[in-house]
Write a structure and sequence with these properties.
Layout lengths: L5 H11 L4 E3 L7 E2 L2 E2 L6 E5 L12 E5 L2 H11 L4 E4 L3 E4 L10 H11 L2 H20 L4 E3 L6 E3 L5 E5 L8 H11 L12 H4 L1 H8 L22 H7 L2 E4 L8 H17 L3
Parallel strand pairs: 1-4
Antiparallel strand pairs: 2-3, 2-9, 4-5, 6-7, 8-10, 10-11
Length: 268
């Protein structure tokens, strides 16, 4: 749910002629410098998956103020890229899809819109309290909340451990936190996409399009070394996605107490 430094990203993209699409699937109604998540680039994507902050059933939506892009998205995503030809019928001029939202998903999503803002505000208040409590534990650092993030639409709570201060590794630390009463607390190494999407590396290794040479300018590979900083953080990061708007201050205190107990039991 944390929002990236979008101004800097957009600035770099503009210098190099790149188009920025914003993944806001877990940041619904988060706010950055007075603007909502999903409105900070050419287009933003949201998820309505059941586990998301504004979950309903499946699917999602694209938000953009680019009329041409919106029409193209409808054509490809809703209309299967189909066009009617007189005296023939429908032809498909591109590889389209029928990703239309069901009526039940639409109904649930509309109902969610009536309650989502106060829920997100509650998440923001509670994650800031929980983060402050976690930061009081030696060797534990909560995810930093940038000053530009005015509303943190938190989907998961998390923290990093300092491996030099504990006798156990991040896997064991997370398992003990989960056993202590925070369901689902664990590392999330699968978030390192170059490792979690081995088919990309397979295609690059076989030099299949678009990784063929020529015209590819270099040999591509996808592994942990592709994103060394992300890899280093994920090797000591623990999170749980059961954090939600039902958290009250006492729940934040309980969660921090569980993490503190595990930290003290494993301290060097």
């Amino acid at each position: 749910g944390l929002i990236c430094d979008m101004d800097s990203i957009n600035e770099v993209a503009a210098r190099h002629g790149l188009v920025v699409y914003e993944d806001a699937c877990q940041a619904v109604f988060g706010r950055y410098k007075g603007r909502y998540a999903g409105t900070l680039a050419v287009a933003g994507g949201f998820s309505f998956d059941a586990e998301k902050t504004m979950g309903s059933d499946v699917g999602g939506c694209i938000l953009t103020d680019d009329d041409a892009l919106a029409e193209r998205a409808r054509f490809i995503g809703h209309s299967r890229a189909g066009e009617m030809v007189e005296h023939f019928g429908r032809i498909h001029t591109a590889n389209g899809f029928a990703h239309r939202m069901t009526q039940s998903t639409a109904a649930i999503s509309l109902a969610q819109l009536e309650i989502i803002k106060p829920q997100v505000e509650q998440r923001d208040r509670m994650i800031r309290l929980l983060s402050a409590l976690l930061d009081e534990i030696p060797g534990i650092t909560a995810l930093p909340i940038p000053q530009e993030t005015e509303v943190y639409s938190c989907w998961m709570a998390g923290f990093t451990i300092d491996p030099d201060q504990f006798r156990c590794d991040v896997e064991a630390f997370g398992a003990q936190v989960a056993a202590g009463g925070i369901p689902g607390a664990s590392p999330m190494r699968y978030y390192l996409l170059p490792v979690a999407l081995p088919f990309l590396n397979d295609a690059a290794t076989r030099q299949r399009f678009p990784y063929s040479q020529p015209p590819a300018s270099r040999t591509y590979r996808y592994d942990a070394e592709s994103c060394p900083n992300a890899h280093e953080i994920l090797e000591r990061f623990i999170r749980w996605s059961s954090f939600c708007e039902k958290y009250e201050p006492r729940h934040c205190e309980q969660a921090a107490a569980i993490v503190r107990r595990v930290a003290e039991e494993n301290r060097r």
